[in-house]
Structure prediction request, 315 residues.
Amino acid sequence: MQSISGLIAPYRTVRNRLQGFPGKKVLVLEGGGMRGIFLVGVLQAFVDRGYFPWHYIIGTSAGALTGTAYAARQIYLARDAFFSDLLSGRFIRVTNIFRREKHILNLDWMVDNFTAQEGGLNLRRLRTTACPVIIVATCFYQHAPLRPLYLDSRFDDVPVALKASAAIPVLYRNFVPYQDEMLMDGSVCDPLPYKKALGMGYKEQDILVVTTRPRGYRKDRESFWVQKLYEAYYKDDQYAFLVSALNDHYSRYNLLLDELEQDHQGIEVIYPPGDFKVNRLTRSEDKILEGFVQGVIAARNYLYPLGEQETLQTD
Prediction:
């Protein structure tokens, strides 16, 4: 028997068009650690305005975290996490960089707080929602090229998927085992997964991408010292393909942006403003608050492109 959410899904797009909102079908969310606060602001504004036309949400790392909270109708979980758990000394421990046995990012604690605590992420709703979340991870293989893995919130273990998608090499010391795979940060293979939406058969005009970098940004090659860090940490021959992928990540990421802007101009994109100050490991509450507000404003400008007056509600 079809679920109630499945029966009403076709009417969401109609409702949003009647409100004058864009009739999209797939939401793609970039990762970026603490830069994900921009995503939270965008999605908070969408929630406040009743904007939810989606058939699928596809997210990598912080994009997966915020996307699952949004899909579960619990965006406040992501918002509260960025303003409390993720700013605490228990999550980011830069001093552990010289302690190989210790994580710099305490993902185990963070994901447990987000999903397993009382009042945490509604996993049952994610399994039955008419809008699944595709969580992007990367599969690591010894002596073989890496590949992306797209986990589905309806069928896969969401807490494990969220941890894997955010398991940034070196910052999180381990791979995340799941079924027969060893998983890590989804952005290693697919940092901006709009091509997954195209591969699923959706048209460019069906897709909205939200990035965590301003328009025109291009990533630089990793510094000599970062490359040496990768090579020292993953020094065994079995990691050769991983080190190569990490050192070449900048070129793959820039190519994705080039193709998005030049070859797929029908895809709409919400970018942070040029003065967005949040980076991957930001711990300044003032910068996080500013980034959140910038996301709210960007979403408002997307939903009301002609500048119609409306009341901002971010509670």
In short: The first strand starts at residue 26 and ends at 29. The chain has twelve helices and eight strands. The radius of gyration is 19 Å.
